[in-house]
């Protein structure tokens, strides 16, 4: 059987692929989608998992007291899921821009200067996107804590899984960003990006632990 041809990336969005198509592309020699897209996808999966917990809480008489709160939380999970899916595509596009910048001619001094400027501009995008992924993943982790406290206790282990995925997405995005920050020539931009990474990861271990503790406490009560 002939090998399945690789999908042209990023002309086709990640969300339109089957799981098998995505995994085939991920395992290929094509560097896109890469770690940044995978981090964003992990965050989107976490948000979707939390949405499931909300949907299994809504409409049940014994959770009527938290109906309005859970409805709002469900809306937030959908928003973050959509944003993270768009960031998965944006990550591939940002990497493509960096790759194209490096391919610019550099035989003359003028060409070298133009290429250098193009690489720096592309690296700005390649740095900002994974930081956005980390920030949105942090938002998913915040939601996980709230949902762990009010969601249907029979599916709370799924909240724990979502928390682990969100944490992985956050750390994955920050790892990608840190490597790119180190190569930036614009020190002011680099400092701004570094400050955002520090904010996104503040007390993340504590937050993850709080989610897992809330799950254990309510699941065993």
How much is the average pLDDT? 92
Strand content: under 5%
Quote the distance from N terminus to C terminus: 54 Å
Contiguous uncertain segments of 5+ residues: 1-10
The CATH homologous superfamily is named: Formiminotetrahydrofolate cyclodeaminase monomer, up-and-down helical bundle
Number of strands: 0
Main sheet properties: none
Q: Overall 3D geometry? A: elongated
**Backbone structural class:** mainly alpha
Number of domains: 1
CATH architecture: Up-down Bundle
Number of distinct helices: 7
Query: Remind me, CATH topology?
Result: Four Helix Bundle (Hemerythrin (Met), subunit A)
* SSE sequence, one letter per element: HHHHHHH
Structure description:
By secondary structure, this protein is mainly α. It has a single domain, classed as Four Helix Bundle (Hemerythrin (Met), subunit A). 74% of the residues lie in helices and 0% in strands. The longest helix has 42 residues, at 109-150. The radius of gyration is 20 Å and the shape is elongated. The N and C termini lie far apart (54 Å). The model is unreliable at 1-10 (pLDDT under 50).
């Amino acid at each position: 059987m002939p090998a399945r041809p690789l999908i042209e990336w990023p002309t086709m969005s990640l969300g339109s692929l089957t799981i098998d198509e995505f995994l085939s592309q991920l395992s290929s020699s094509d560097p896109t989608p890469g770690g940044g897209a995978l981090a964003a996808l992990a965050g989107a999966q976490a948000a979707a998992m939390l949405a499931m917990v909300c949907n299994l809480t809504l409409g049940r008489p014994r959770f009527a007291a938290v109906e309005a709160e859970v409805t709002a939380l469900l809306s937030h999970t959908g928003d973050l899921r959509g944003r993270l899916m768009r960031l998965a595509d944006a990550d591939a596009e940002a990497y493509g821009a960096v790759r194209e910048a490096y391919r610019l001619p550099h035989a003359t001094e003028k060409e070298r200067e133009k290429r250098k400027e193009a690489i720096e501009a592309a690296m700005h995008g390649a740095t900002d996107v994974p930081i956005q992924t980390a920030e949105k993943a942090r938002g998913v982790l915040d939601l996980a804590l709230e949902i762990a406290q009010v969601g249907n206790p029979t599916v709370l282990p799924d909240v724990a899984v979502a928390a682990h995925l969100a944490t992985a997405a956050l750390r994955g995005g920050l790892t990608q960003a840190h490597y790119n920050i180190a190569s930036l020539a614009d020190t002011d931009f680099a400092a701004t990006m570094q400050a955002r990474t520090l904010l996104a990861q503040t007390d993340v271990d504590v937050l993850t632990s709080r989610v897992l503790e809330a799950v254990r406490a309510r699941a065993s009560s």
